[in-house]
Amino acid sequence: MTDIHALSGAYAVDALDDLERAQFERHLAECPACRSEVDSLREAAATMAETVAVEPPPALRDRVLADIATVRPLPPVVPEQSAPEPVRRRPARRWLPGLAAAAAVVAVLGVGAAVVQPWEDETSQTTPSAVDRIRAADDVQTYVQQFEDGSTATLYRSVSLNQAVIATSDMADAPEGRVYEVWLQHDDRMVAAGLMPDGPSNVVELVGDPATADGFGITLEADGGSTTGEPEGDVLAVVEFEQT
Amino acid sequence: MDHIRPVPDDPSPETPGEGASALPDLGELLKLSGRGDQGAFAQLYDAVSARVFGLVVRVVRDPAQAEEVTQEVFLEIWRTAGRYDPGRGSPLGWLLTIAHRKAVDRVRSAEAATRRDASYHQHNQPVAHDVTAEAAHASLEARRVRTALDSLTSVQREALELAYFGGYTHTEVAGMLDLPVGTAKTRIRDGLIRLRDTMGVGGR
Q1: Type and span of the H or E element at B53
Q2: Chain A residues touching B81 at Cβ < 8 A
Q3: Does the pTM exceed 0.80?
Q4: A and B: number of Cβ contacts within 8 A
Q5: In a 3-state reduction of DSSP, which class is residue B174?
Q6: pLDDT tens for each residue of A128-179
């Protein structure tokens, strides 16, 4: 395809065959200019529908409203964090000790004692095998953070693998426009380690250096996570790691 | 689309004219629908169903299939309402994009002969245009669109209409209009740009 951008108009009116559509969609993922142009050309194309408007039969309305009664709307998509970036490790201000006096019970279940969490894998951000590996490690540590509403966040850390995952259970979705963000604490700095997607049960592998971290935290940030490299929103949990 | 408001009788943009029925706030209805508000969705349906069904039936042609596809379209609108992104386009543009894609998918997967059968039109007429107040105002807007389309070159307009309403690929359009291979996509793009700029949509 010599000039892939030239397909933007045809794409906007669904005038590509399957092969070209796949090629163009791959291109779109990397071309913000084309994404923006496609959006605007779709708006233009949609005006043409105005010229052919036709009232549907009344029975169609009944069928549509009956359909929707049996299907639930999908939750919004939380923008995913991109792959681990060194910039995440830039120094942050001190985490004020006062903020660390967060919520509830933290049960440290000790080295090697992996707790079975019966979560449903519906929106895993990481494959079960990565989680299983961590939980099967000789030096796995398990930290369970319970919240007032009965939800739990369980973090498994293996120093030998230098990996950590956090698994949530019965977690309420973050309020609209917000997202749960996970942090790893190094000395007095909190370093962003990942965003939690919506859904009651999620598994997220933490980005960064869990082996040398002193603990982890969960905060509630604006959509997309904190943009300053340090926690900006409400602190929901701060947990210290047991040092082996 | 903000421009889909009836032309007011008086110069004040805030006051609708006599007998005008402004479109409800579709973005708000989408947001509520995304949270499961069936009443809001019913209002949304009432506001846009003629545009959706009209587009689908124009592309799909077979009225029975058009009804099926329209049903599917509204179900997808319901399911994905929470994912509508106002930054990328208007609510009406968003849901008509869904409708168009589904209509084209259906017409291409249906037997090709059926779509190209000239005698088809004799036996399958779409439902007659219902002249309600809403439809009357839609036709004001439709006039504006037709005027905008008049500003395209005839090749741009034909290519665009074959693609948009006919559901043809740009390669097929090139063949149908006796254009060199590859030129139809340029005509389509140029026509859309012209249409966009004339109608003042697409937030540029």
Answers
A1: helix B38-60
A2: 73
A3: no
A4: 213
A5: helix
A6: 567 788 888 888 888 888 777 778 888 999 988 889 999 888 787 888 888 8
- Dig out the tokens for A67 from the structure: 């359909």
Interface of A with B in 63-82 (CB under 8 A): 63-65, 67-69, 71-77
Residue whose pair of structure tokens reads 């961590």 in the numeric block: A134
Distances (CA, A) of A27 to A4, A22, A33, A79: 8, 9, 11, 20
- Residue A69 with chain B: CB contacts under 8 Å: 38
ipTM: 0.81
Measured in angstroms, the CA of A229 and the nearest CA of chain B are apart by 25
Give the CB-side neighbour count of residue B30, counting CA atoms within 13 A: 21
DSSP alpha helix (H) spans, chain B: 26-34, 38-60, 63-80, 91-109, 112-116, 120-123, 133-150, 154-164, 170-176, 183-199
In angstroms, the separation between the Cα of residue A52 and the nearest Cα of chain B is: 5
CA–CA gap between residue A35 and residue A25 (Å, rounded): 9
